[in-house]
């Protein structure tokens, strides 16, 4: 029986993780849950899964939840201290980081320090602090398993391969809802348009990131840290059917790929049970119905989310944090319908242009770079009004 904690249990990845727990009651049990402010769903999860700890980011929500579940033995925590406590309690063996955004940074680092295995969905954390996290993972000897479908595919494709036999990593991207559109056409796209992803049902932030290709940019940086390759060894190709989840080419030109239907349960379950494989209900790939698997070059002139990520990676240090922080802020403004779609790119590029890189930044430097980026965006938007 593996005891797990889930940061972001009320979200898309969090609820799918709980589906897997529900289907494997003899193998998995939930010891800690955490969410932002969704009291009702967290209450229902507490009643069903009986964790010992639960945390809400929002203090008022935590107080309300404490009253609602007073008839259960669960301990309710709140704020950053609460997120860190649920990530490090002695009882949990593995933490599923399914929280959205770089708010996951400190809890993830503390969980690794406490020796917890990590199933990582929260890519923003690795993007901003890969240089701190990966050495810590090595030092503590914990398992650090990707949940992101592309990275799970690469991890599965690498199997027992020797690291120096990797020629390149081929990250696939669906291209999102705006594939094939020009910059002119992108300008008028609304929140509703951008939230209509062709293949995957996910949280709002990552769905917008998929439309801008910032998600693929974050994934390039995520792959850089997870697999220890150079930026030049990471190639992105558009594969609209989302059947090949990613591939690895070796020095002898042999290619290993992992294929499947677009269903996050497989990479989540793979991380939870690694190195075992377990049965998973659902549809298998129907190659005859799919007919063709197609590939395209990404349009880097229009979808600037991707080239900006490569620039951030080349600049190094605190720049990937600025790329990510500017995007987080810009996406929340876009979701509030305060800025247009193309302004997301403008704000990321502007934030990066203004930032002076700090090499090998500490957690405090990273949080300061985040704040500096938020201030830059707030001031820029105020000047416009
Ligand atoms: P959702 O928006 O669906 O869920 C986000 C979760 O984080 C919710 O449980 C939310 O709680 C919680 N949360 C948000 N802010 C805080 C906070 N300050 N403190 C505590 N909890 C908080 O996101 P997704 O599940 O789509 O994505 C989660 C992560 O997984 C992201 O990093 C994403 O990039 C990554 N990912 C997601 C995929 C997907 O298919 N969805 C695929 C690959 C990666 P509440 O509900 O209370 O707001
Ligand atoms: Mg992905």
Annotate the secondary structure layout:
Layout (H helix, E strand, L loop, with lengths): L1 E6 L4 H12 L4 E8 L3 H11 L3 E4 L2 H10 L6 E4 H10 L5 E4 L7 H9 L3 E4 L2 H18 L3 E3 L2 H10 L7 E8 L9 H5 L3 H4 L9 H9 L1 H14 L6 E5 L5 E7 L4 E5 L5 H9 L13 H4 L14 H11 L3 H17 L5 H14 L8 H22 L1
Parallel strand pairs: 1-2, 1-5, 2-3, 3-4, 5-6, 6-7, 8-9
Antiparallel strand pairs: 8-10, 10-11
Helix pairs in contact: 2-3, 4-5, 5-6, 6-11, 6-15, 10-15, 11-14, 14-15, 15-16, 15-17
Helix content: 40-55%
Bound molecules: NADPH dihydro-nicotinamide-adenine-dinucleotide phosphate, magnesium ion
Could you tell me how far the N terminus lies from the C terminus, measured between alpha carbons in angstroms?
Answer: 56 Å
Beta-sheet strand percentage? 15-25%
Separate helix tally: 17
Q: Give a count of the beta strands, DSSP E runs of length 2 or more.
A: 11
**Which structural class best describes the helix and strand composition?**
alpha/beta
Adjacency order of strands in the biggest sheet: 4-3-2-1-5-6-7
Order of helices and strands: EHEHEHEHEHEHEHEHHHHEEEHHHHHH
Radius of gyration: 20 Å
The stretches of 5 or more residues where confidence is low (pLDDT under 50) are none
Q: What average pLDDT do the residues reach?
A: 97
| Biggest beta sheet attributes | 7 strands, parallel
Shape descriptor: globular
Written account of the structure:
There is one protein chain. The protein is an alpha/beta fold and 385 residues long. 49% of the residues lie in helices and 15% in strands. The chain has helices spanning 12-23, 39-49, 59-68, 79-88, 105-113, 123-140, 149-158, 183-187, 191-194, 204-212, 214-227, 265-273, 287-290, 305-315, 319-335, 341-354, 363-384; strands spanning 2-7, 28-35, 53-56, 75-78, 94-97, 117-120, 144-146, 166-173, 234-238, 244-250, 255-259. The strands form two sheets. It has a seven-stranded parallel β-sheet, sandwiched between helices. α2 (39-49) links the parallel β2 (28-35) and β3 (53-56). The relative contact order is 0.11. NADPH dihydro-nicotinamide-adenine-dinucleotide phosphate binds next to α1, β2, α6 and α10.
């Amino acid at each position: 029986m593996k005891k797990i904690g889930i940061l972001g249990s009320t979200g898309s990845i969090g609820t799918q993780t709980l589906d897997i727990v529900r289907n494997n009651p003899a193998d998995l049990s939930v010891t800690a849950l955490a969410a932002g402010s969704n009291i009702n769903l967290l209450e229902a999860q507490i009643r069903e899964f009986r964790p010992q700890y639960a945390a809400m980011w929002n203090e008022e929500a935590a107080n309300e939840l404490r009253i609602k579940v007073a008839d259960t033995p669960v301990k309710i925590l709140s704020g950053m201290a609460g997120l860190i406590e649920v990530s490090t309690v002695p009882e949990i063996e593995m933490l599923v980081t399914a929280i959205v955004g770089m708010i996951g940074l400190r809890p993830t680092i503390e969980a690794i320090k406490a020796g917890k295995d990590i199933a990582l969905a929260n890519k923003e954390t690795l993007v901003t602090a890969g240089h701190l996290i990966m050495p810590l993972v090595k030092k503590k000897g914990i398992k650090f398993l990707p949940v992101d479908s592309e990275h799970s595919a690469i991890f599965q494709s690498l199997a027992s391969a020797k690291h120096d036999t990797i020629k390149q990593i081929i990250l696939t991207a669906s291209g999102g809802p705006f594939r094939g559109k020009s910059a002119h056409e992108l300008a008028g796209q609304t929140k509703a348009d951008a939230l209509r992803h062709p293949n995957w049902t996910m949280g709002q932030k990552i769905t917008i990131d998929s439309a801008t290709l910032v998600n693929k940019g974050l994934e390039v940086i995520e792959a850089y840290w997870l697999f220890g390759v150079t930026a030049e060894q990471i190639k992105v190709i558009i594969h609209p059917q989302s059947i090949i989840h990613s591939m690895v080419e070796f020095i002898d030109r042999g290619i290993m790929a992992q294929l499947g239907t677009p269903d996050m349960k497989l990479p989540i379950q793979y991380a939870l049970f690694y190195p075992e494989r377990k049965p998973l209900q659902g549809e298998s790939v129907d190659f005859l119905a799919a007919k063709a698997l197609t590939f395209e070059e990404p349009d880097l002139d229009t979808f600037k989310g991707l080239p900006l990520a490569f620039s951030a990676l080349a600049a190094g240090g605190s720049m990937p944090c600025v790329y990510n922080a500017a995007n987080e802020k810009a996406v929340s403004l876009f979701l509030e319908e305060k800025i247009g779609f193309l302004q997301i790119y403008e704000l990321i590029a502007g934030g990066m242009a203004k930032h002076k890189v700090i090499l090998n930044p500490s957690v405090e430097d990273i949080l300061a770079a985040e704040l500096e980026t938020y201030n830059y965006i707030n001031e820029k938007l105020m000047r416009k009004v």
